[in-house]
Amino acid sequence: MKNISNYIRISSLFLVTVGFLVSCERELSDDAVLATFSSTPEVFTDGPVGLGSDFYFPYADSKFTAFSVDNEEGYQSNASIRIDVPNSDDPLGAYAGGIFRVDGAGRDLTKYDALTFWAKASQGVSVGEIGFGEDFLENKYIATRTNISVGTNWTKYVIPIPDASKLTQERGLLRYAAGTQSTNGSGYTLWIDELRFEKLGTIAQPRPSIVNGQDVNLTSFIGVTSQVTDLIQTFNLGTGNDVDIIAAPNYFEFTSSNPSVATVDTSGLISINTSGTTTVTATLGGNDAAGSITVNSLGTFQLPPTPTRDPSNVISIFSDFYTNVPVDFYNGFWEPFQTTLSADFDVNGDNILNYTNFNFVGNQFANPTIDITDKSNLHLNMYIPGSIPANLDFLISVVDFGPDGADGGGDDTRQQIFFNGSDFVADSWVTLDVPITLANKSNIGLIIYENINGSPLSNFYLDNIYFYGEPTSPSTPAASPTDPAGNVISLFSDAYTDVPVDTFRTPWSSASTVLTNEVVSGDNIKKYASLGFAGIETLNNSVDASSMTHVRIDTWSANYTSFALKLVDLGADNTIGTADDSEHEVTITNPVTGQWVNHDIPLSDFTGLTNRSNLGQYIIVGQPTNANDVFIDNFYFRN
Amino acid sequence: MNFTSKYINVSLLVVLIAVIISCSPDEKQEITALNKLVLEDNFDTSGALDSSLWSYEIGDGSAQGIPGWGNNEQQYYTDRPENVIVEDGMLKIIAQKENFEGSSFTSARILTKGKFQKKYGRFEARIKLPWGQGIWPAFWMLGDDNNGADVWPNIGEIDIMEYRGQEPTITHGSVHGPGYSGGNAVTKSYDLVNDRFDTDFHIFGIEWGPNYINYYVDDVLYNQITPEDVNGDWVFNDREFYIIMNVAVGGSFVGAPGPDVVYPQTMYVDYVRVYE
């Protein structure tokens, strides 16, 4: 490399000298600005040309040593670029790939129309990608020709420049990626020589396109961003053959017909600002690109309900509120029959799965499969934009891969859940909550969604796909309270010294209600099974809570729909059942189930409780009556 | 041009090499001054063609007894403005992909038969060509047939420009006559090398005089054909010829139209001029 480096210095010095002489002859005015970027066309002839000493940068996951200079083989010479493509199981990297970047200022390539080279391979291969414009910096003007058929004789190849006027100072003069997809994993050698930019004069008939030249409709919402995809420039070569070049967004000029609805930036990212319709189109080098995206923005996106279940009870497949298990894919693109495409988007950070052109699709999470033995239900939120097809017939299948943990193999079982139009509301999220009835559910690997019986559902969104269990008892203790002991009168808590309590279940409590003492991770809790109402009494040592401001109690239930607490003060006579008693009941409706709920109720809410210096009775009430189990902990007054 | 396909065969190449060798400067060459303008259509009047000069040939050749115009061509020729129109100072002959009268493509073919016919002179046109697999434009001439008394190839054919849409850098110039027609025509091809015929206008012409026809593109004379070059009677000294311009789709010269061809495909003619 040292020799090459010296050669470059000499060469660039020469160029500078020529420029100087010319400028002397011309007597340029002071205003004239000399072009400062080399337009040297050669990249590699008998060696690298003008690239500097440090020009080769392999892709991070490629085999770093794949590139060398071959000093025996060459096209009408004794030197060429040699790429030793590794076997697919090579531990040092499964493919060859990298870039040639000028070690120094970029080149002015505006007067050329193609990168050309001669190539051959040790066997006939299809080389995945060859192009230019990648510099591992901004990568602004990447252009790539894909699947180039290279035989065993030297042949000239042409990679047209999508729009040479952009390449005023390009450092990325070559990019390539060569694997063994076409050779069943067997490595081979690829030689490239006479690599240079040229003005062929025969690169013509540019036909740029976006989104595969299709006119695409996109239903979307404020705050959503979408990428314009499939950016291609097609030329007709002098041979009469068409060649497609994948062109970076910066070659294109994007336009939104109604920028107040949505804007599109130089990278082709569409950002939706308000409701309405706009059409995004593009040009390349002044030529209209085939294809368009008509955005129909429905306005503010209604996010799905925020999940509330305790993460410890959830195995999440797709949700921003939980940590998802490893998922192989949300859309496996099963060929040849699947038509479903993905147009996933996010709204202010909430990712949404969007399936379009739907017939069926799968979410696979088989590495590893998941064990939902202690989970009872599948939950997902689904949104059908536009309208609900009249004959909607929608099937969700949950597949257990069986003991072999693999799809197929004869031991798979599946549960099918059917939905029709009455299960959905157009332009709204619905919650699909399905009890899992599979006998074997320790190797769940796949959820399949499909249209059946000619159902025409085409487009829908999914979010918050997770399995959950409704545990019947808490698996963790309630959070330990932090109120200072001096500010607390505790009836039941491991965190404080409790005052004397006569009973935690009076005999007149609901007959079905059974009280047991339980321990979770060393924490004592009380369980009221089949709670209707239950009395707790401190008649023998009434509690003076006159200096307290709040009553606190932690509850946990898998199945209550309301929870109430009544406080009874014995009055000045300190005797239950007399005229000076006062009482009040506060009800919490729809407390969150399956997790500890901390109720911290101002005593001022107990408006009927006119006195609280002789509290003697506390009644807890759960609904549905006699059909809910409630656990309590940390029952105390505080200020 | 007409009736059968033409290929450059190996023996023809040998002939051409001989021609080139014989074209040394000290050989007898007719140095002509063909500068007197006798016909000029600059296509400056938008609308239909000048009917005093041009006629149309309509159909797929069946009415003329040669379905596919003798070459398995796939177009149906019309005189509709969709296929032939003068606008923007140019003649446009437009090949369309459309189902029409049983054909899958339409186009146009115009000729000066009976309206402008001439023996000898400099015939040239400035043309930007269409492109794509199977597109076959031509600027050519046929000899007068004495009201049907004489038949091709005895009447002679001079192809000033023929071109395959899949070879956008190459034009072909040919003569057909008795003993050297169809696949045995005398042809030479000219490759622009660093340019193409479908991206800008180029001048295609011949200088035709007694016992010679010179072929040129722009300012490059690329061939001369004389009686020594043809394997039969020289039929270009005894009758008037008329001009034909057309765009065919498909046919034995170009093969079937490709699936990726972009339609419409248009041959733009800036002018046709004849000097003597």
UniProtKB/TrEMBL annotation, chain A:
Residue ranges annotated for the BIG2 domain, each copy included: 251-289
Instruction: Check the record and name the Gene3D superfamilies matching this protein.
Output: 2.60.40.1080, Galactose-binding lectin (2.60.120.430)
UniProt xrefs under InterPro entries? Big_2, Galactose-bd-like_sf, Invasin/intimin_cell_adhesion
Q: Which domain of life is it from?
A: Bacteria
SUPFAM superfamilies tied to this protein: Galactose-binding domain-like, Invasin/intimin cell-adhesion fragments
Pfam families xref list: Big_2
Name the chain's protein: BIG2 domain-containing protein
Q: Which organism is it from?
A: Nonlabens dokdonensis
From TrEMBL, chain B:
Which superkingdom? Bacteria
Task: Write down the CDD domains for this protein, in alphabetical order.
Answer: GH16_laminarinase_like
Keyword Hydrolase recorded: yes
Q: Which UniProt keywords apply?
A: Hydrolase
The Gene Ontology biological process annotation of the record reads:
carbohydrate metabolic process
Q: GH16 domain: from which residue to which, for each copy?
A: 19-276
Q: Which InterPro entries match?
A: Beta-glucanase-like, ConA-like_dom_sf, Glycosyl_Hydrlase_16
Q: Name one GO molecular function term.
A: hydrolase activity, hydrolyzing O-glycosyl compounds
Q: Into which family does the record put it?
A: Belongs to the glycosyl hydrolase 16 family.
Q: What is the name of this protein?
A: Glycosyl hydrolase family 16
